[in-house]
Structures are given as structure tokens and as C-alpha cells.
Design goal:
The chain is α/β, with parallel strands linked by helices. Helices cover 34% and strands 25% of the residues. The protein is flat. The two termini are 22 Å apart.
Length: 56
């Protein structure tokens, strides 16, 4: 297995969070390890900035 995908996931619906995590799990080749925030303003907050692979 490759390196985990470090992502910032911006989503306020818990069902959508579970769906995204399940889709990533089913892709199977890489571990998906998101940091979750519920609002765009939280994502832009300096405390939540990271050197992750992507922002969803």
C-alpha cells in the first residue's frame, strides 16, 4: 500500500463524509486520512492549514 492521502475534507453533512470515506476505501490502493471541518471558513483558518495532498 502507498502513502496515505492526507486531505482536508470540508463537509457539513455526516452522511456525505461517510460516503466519501467509503468511496475512498473501495478504491483500495491508498489509505485516505482526512482532517474534517464543517465550513469553508474553518478550512481557511490558519489552525487548519496543512501540507496535505488535497482539499475536498
Amino acid at each position: 500500500m502507498g502513502h496515505p492521502i492526507e486531505a482536508l475534507l470540508v463537509e457539513d453533512n455526516p452522511d456525505d463524509v461517510r460516503l466519501i470515506q467509503e468511496m475512498a476505501k473501495e478504491a483500495g490502493t491508498t489509505q485516505f486520512d482526512p482532517e474534517l471541518v464543517e465550513a469553508f471558513c474553518q478550512a481557511m483558518n490558519e489552525d487548519n492549514r496543512q501540507d496535505g495532498s488535497l482539499c475536498i
